[in-house]
Amino acid sequence: MDLSQAAPGQNYFRLTVDNIRAPLGMEITKISPSSIRLYLDAVKTRSVPIKAKLTGKLPNSLSLKSVGVEPAFVILQGPESTLGKIREVFTDPIDLSLVPEDRKIPIGLDLESPQIHLAPGQPSQVAVDLKLERTL
To answer: 3-state DSSP call for residue 19?
Structure first.
C-alpha cells in the first residue's frame, strides 16, 4: 500500500486487490474490512533537560550537597504528538543507600515511551555527579 500521499493526522484507505500484494503462490479472494483508518504523525526532534532519578536514603551521617548531570540536555526523536508531552527525561534509578562518598556515576536514560528514541548521535548514557557532605 502506497502511503506517500498521506498527510499527518487521520487518513482512510480503501483496500483493494490492486493495492495489496499476496504472498507467492497465493491469491486474495476476499478483503474485509474494505477500508482502514490510519493515524499518521510527523516525526520531530526536541531537546529536553535530563534529571537524575534518586531513590533510597543516604546514611544519617551524609547529606546530598549537589547533583549534576552531564550532558544536561538530550535530543529526543519521535511522533510530534507524543514528543510534545515530554518536559524532561530521567536517568535510570540511582540508589543513594549505595553511595558512600562523592561519585560520578555513568547511567542510562529512561525514555518511558517506546515511541520515543534518542536522536542520532545522542549519548545512551550520561554521567550523574553526586557531591555529598558529612553531617554532625
So the answer is: helix
The cell for 84 is 510534545
Neighbours of 126 (CB within 10 A): 22
- The fold for domain 43-134 equals RNA Polymerase Alpha Subunit; Chain A, domain 2 (2.170.120)
Q: Which residue has the cell 552531564?
A: 70
Is residue 78 exposed (0-12), middle (13-18) or buried (19+ Cβ within 10 Å)? buried
pLDDT per residue as tens digits for the range 45-101: 999 999 999 999 998 889 999 999 999 999 999 999 999 999 999 999 999 999 989
Kindly report the three-state secondary structure assignment for every residue of 85-133.
Answer: CCCCEEECCEEHHHCCCCEEEEEEEECCCCCCEECCCCCCEEEEEEEEE
Q: Evaluate if pTM is beyond 0.85.
A: no
Let me know the angle formed at the C-alpha of 117 by 67 and 72, rounded to the nearest 5 degrees: 20
